[in-house]
Design brief:
949 residues; Leucine-rich Repeat Variant; Serine Threonine Protein Phosphatase 5, Tetratricopeptide repeat; mainly alpha
Length: 949
Amino acid sequence: MVLIDEVPDFVTLKEEGNKYFTSGQYDAAISTYTKALEESDAKPQDKGVLYKNRAACYLKLEKYEEACADATQALEIIPNDPKALFRRCQCYENLGKIEDAYKDAKQLLYVEPKNKAIQPVLRKLNALLQDKLKEQNSTDNKVTQMFKLAFGEGDDKEKREQAINNLIVLAREEAGAGRIMQSGAVTNLNKLLDSSNPVIVVGSLRLLACLAKENRKRACAIQDEISTNRLFSLMGIDDSDISSAVGHLVSTLITAITELEKFKASRQKHEDLVKKEGPQGKGRHPPLTLEEEYANRSDALMHCAIKNINNGKFSACGRDSVLELLIKFVTRQDGIDWGIKFLETDGITRILEVAGTIPALSYTVMKISENTRMNCSVLLSKIYDEFISDKRRDQYREQVSQYFCDQFGDTRHIDYQMEAITAISALLQGPYDIGNTILGTQGVLEIMLALANSPDPLHQKISVEALVHATSKKDKCSGIVKQAVPILKKLYQSENDNIKVRALVGLCKLGSFGGTDASAKSLAEGSTQALAKACRKFLNNPMKDVDLRKWACEGLAFLTLDADVKQDLVEDTAALQSLIDLAKVSDKSVLYPAATVFVNLTNSYEKKEIIPELLELAKYAKHHIPEEHAKDKPEFVKERIAKLVKAGMVNALVAFSKTDSHSSRELLSRVFLAVVEETEYRGLVVQQGGAKSLIPLANEGTDVGKTCAAQALAKIAIVMNPEVAFPGQRCLEVVRPILQLVHVEKTALQNFEALLALTNLASLNDSVRRRILKEGGFPSIEFYIYEDHELLRRASAECLCNLVMSEEVAKMYMGENDKVKLLVLYCASDELQEDVALIQACLGTLAILSSRKVICEKIMKVKDWSDVLGGIAAQDNPELKHRALHIIMNMIESGKDIAEKVVQTKLLEVLLVLEQTVGSPTKENEKIHHCIRTSLDRLIEYKLIQPTQ
């Protein structure tokens, strides 16, 4: 006979959800109600009830958007349902939609005229509505006044500029933005874009961006009024402020038209659900899909951007703005998936044309900055990485090959071949595999080597750059190393510093192939230090030429894998200061090598764990075993970090942290973590803005980078007052990244530090405690109280002790569960008697909770509860004694029925003995004396005991 597990039916699931709701387990209730809604046997009326119940759960979790959606669904099925109306009214109020909330409240009063609960709500909403109308009238007046100053015929330049700035402030509020749009601002702003005053133009663009932000209707109206071609012609102006402002406006338009932020929020919610409940039955989140109108609008902006990549009339800053715009939106993960559309246009060829531009050539018309080529590399890499299928990658490879075929095919002009070699350098810095493929094409390497042997310095410079980038990966450059080394050595002897430093970097790369392995030397003994010394010489360049210092920094990024080089560099104060000063330059390509140097100096790179058994096996098989250098031991690393911090490295890290590059963000997070490992530097990191920079690093980047940044934040929160380390709103923002560490996939140390940090944060105020709950922190924190690991269990108990000060958490203990029983049993366990901190935390939690009668009743259901409390109250430890007596006091004060049961146990005897023992109140025993005296006075009041003479 085959037994089939019973599948819970609709009624069972509904009742189960109700139980979860009553016990305060709102997430579990939501999950159960959702399963019940998926049951096919549920009637429409029943589904209406479920939607209504789920809305109540979302309300408790302060997820007002979801609660509002469910309440609306319930009202569609059960029109004018009082509970659904009331819940939606609450949602609207919390979402700031006062008018909608007032309508629902009025409708509820109409449906239930005798409902007394809604009357005060209606009065409050009416007052809020009146205030909003006053504010709106005030906003109308402000907008009218600012319009006269901004768009009037007056010639006062300062007043016009100030009026536009005031309108920007008003436009940040929905009411202000709506009123400005109604007043015909877009038409007037379009005229101001022709102003000769750049401040007015930038202000107008910023105002348009504020109006378009997260509002599809307004964004479409702006796009209709100001043509796409006009926007991009403004972007091409040789003014970095105007170019950046147009780039921001176009970015805002695309985000609003595609509703990208809503899509990202929906996807994040789905990912959180999968992480929490597992992937079963969830499927993948659907990709971003747009209606034809909005797809056409976003495509128009994209095609215009692609068309202007190699526009000869564009300024260098304008070209960078176009490339940065495409980088932002080209990916599927963070943008709107333009990768495939690039293949359908000539976008790849246009990027390569810009990447190959050499300003020194006389016929070059395209203007580029020091960041343009790096932007091209990043964009080419992002497009290539988007393609998973071989077919798409082959198409990409064909388009790239066709460009180089045309460039190398024209042998009449050596300049075309130089441009092709420069474009190969960009590929080798981006999609390396594609660049390596082109490099392997017959005749390409020969051209590169021929240019290197040319007497022309420009030829030498271009070829040596390509050789340097070609030798980046040890496993893929073996074919050219033999030919490259003699040329690099020859060019290193050049009198031209620009060529010499590039050749030096190439030699540095070849010399670093041994990595951190002290026994693997690619060059002769002392050669690595000699190369490093040459790099430091360029770094200390008295002319402070940024290009030379950048290349010297790149050379050190490879050489600082050697511990001797690390020590020499930190001893060279001038070179170290020059390295840190690179954070101030505008060239973005300096960030990655500088961050790599800091990672190497602090030894914060990833280290593979060596398993002893495998080590023995490797020795037996006579395999090469890497050796750690003596100067890579902890004491040397600690000394190097001290010197770096003293030199001002933290300021450099803060300046660098504004980058969008995920790999660079990971490096910075690693260095921050290495610095805050030492307690003495945590205050300095906060003082210099490190804590503020770590929050975005922990929210966006690679998984490793986010984890490192979150752990650094946790370490800061452990030893510092959170109000000082994370002032204002920042103490709420830091909750989410730290909660990432409270996960079974993280290490025990990361779990422990996160729990300690959350304990400190939870002690601040109820806003922080609510944020921890809202981020789903309670079940994650509570999970560790069941752990066998002593420190994790204790940290969890201490964090929960602070969290129960929140009424919502307290309600979770009041439901039908054994949470209270577990706390009492931890206090009673013989095995845990040595863990005083755990018992203290559990007693503290019970002391807070026992002010509620239902908790007192739960305590009394635990076997030998009186012996547990009496035994602890009789101990010498004043902290434990006070907590136990506080619980007894709360139980007696909760009611005469419970007090009678307390009197029937040995606890009365304990109280009487302690009264005699403690004696008169002193500063040390004041709290203990208060608990004893209050308990006995209450028992006398209940007439359960008689006062003595």
